[in-house]
Amino acid sequence: MKENKELLEVKNLGITFFTDQGALPAVQEVDFKIYEGETLGVVGESGCGKSMTALSLMQLIPTPPGKITSGEIIYKGEDLLKKSQDEIQQIRGKEISMIFQEPMTSLNPVITVGKQIMESILIHDEVSKEDASRRALEMIKLVGIPMPEKVFASYPHQLSGGMRQRIMIAMALSCQPSLLICDEPTTALDVTIQAQILRLINKMKHEMNSSVLLITHDMGVISEMADNVIVMYAGKIVEYTAVKNLFKNPLHPYTLGLMASIPDIDSDDEEELEVIPGSVPMLYELPKGCFFAPRCKYAKEICHNECPSMIDKGENHLVRCWKYDKEHGKEWEDE
Questions:
Q1: In this structure, what DSSP letter does residue 298 have?
Q2: Most buried among 24, 214, 294, 331, using CB within 10 Å?
């Protein structure tokens, strides 16, 4: 891990949805840290708990039916879960900001984008409307949008997807947050615009000295953007390490499956990409043991009966798999 100062620590986070089908555990036993100036990537299939984990940091879990049922979220030494809604309102958007997955549904369609950026500034900073307007215009310029004055007075539907995403970034950074959460920030954008948005996030991170929590299903984005990375599956972290370690030495069978599904443009082979068999389990029918066991070609009897804890493999590399357990790992030694 980086030697920078710790900004945020999540301990044993649990999020449960209480529905007609019973209590559904969306996130379980999630632990991680984010350091100042770090980009922490969170990767996994849809439904693995990535966005729920991020929303919990902002306390935006839809309640009901969702509820944070366990854990601590320590931000700058204080547990956010013990703060009042008024205190959280002051932190949300100013100290911790979020770029949401789909800008068209996140921006208000009947208010100009300039006024929406201004609103964020006016809520958190004691400035005049004139100063807020000037700062909002500066933010639009800062994220590289041409004709900023015209865009300032435009409505979301008058802008392209890439420009709307830049407006979301401008809004999220308008109060210079310490932590920027990016939830699939390039979804629904074409490849060239995706690259521009990712470069912009990286540029703004360095210019404003912010930390970034980057949520994605794209391993290529993780390799380019992240310092450290979490791999999530069915609401649990299954691997956690530096991004270089992950690509050099992936340990968990799920991570290996994700890696094998990435096309190699340098290879002359025309072999079909590997596919992980089966599908992510539904929350109301989670397996008894390791959640990945029904899809894992390495699974043994213990995998189907008991869920492993996170195992430290050294070099800040943690993995949730019986294969690496000192006592039970002998079963795999001859393979």
A1: T
A2: 214
Would you state the pLDDT for residue 152? Answer: 96
Summarize pLDDT for 243-259 with one digit per residue, the tens. Answer: 999 999 999 999 999 88
DSSP secondary structure letters along 12-59: EEEEEEEETTEEEEEEEEEEEEEETT-EEEEE--TTSSHHHHHHHHHT
Pair type for strands 96-99 and 179-183: parallel
CA 17 and chain centroid, separation: 20
DSSP β-ladder status, 66-75 and 78-79 = antiparallel
Q: Residue 59, CB half-sphere, CA atoms under 13 Å: how many?
A: 19
Q: Alpha helix locations (H) across the chain?
A: 50-58, 85-91, 103-106, 113-124, 129-142, 148-152, 161-173, 191-208, 219-225, 243-248, 253-260, 301-305
Residues 6+ apart with CB under 8 A from 276: 254, 257, 258, 261, 295
What's residue 2's pLDDT? 43
Residues 206, 19 contacting (CB under 8 angstroms): no
End-to-end CA distance of the chain: 32
- Each residue of 147-202: pLDDT tens digit? 999 999 999 999 988 899 889 889 988 888 999 999 988 776 777 888 888 888 89
- Which residue carries 């958007």 as its tokens? 93
Mean pLDDT (the chain) is 89
The C-alpha atoms of residue 292 and residue 311 are separated, in whole angstroms, by: 16
CA contacts within 13 A on the Cβ side of 233: 28
In angstroms, the CA 148 to CA 139 distance is 9
What is the reported pTM?
0.89
Q: What local confidence, expressed as pLDDT, does residue 55 receive?
A: 93
Residue-level pLDDT at 270: 64
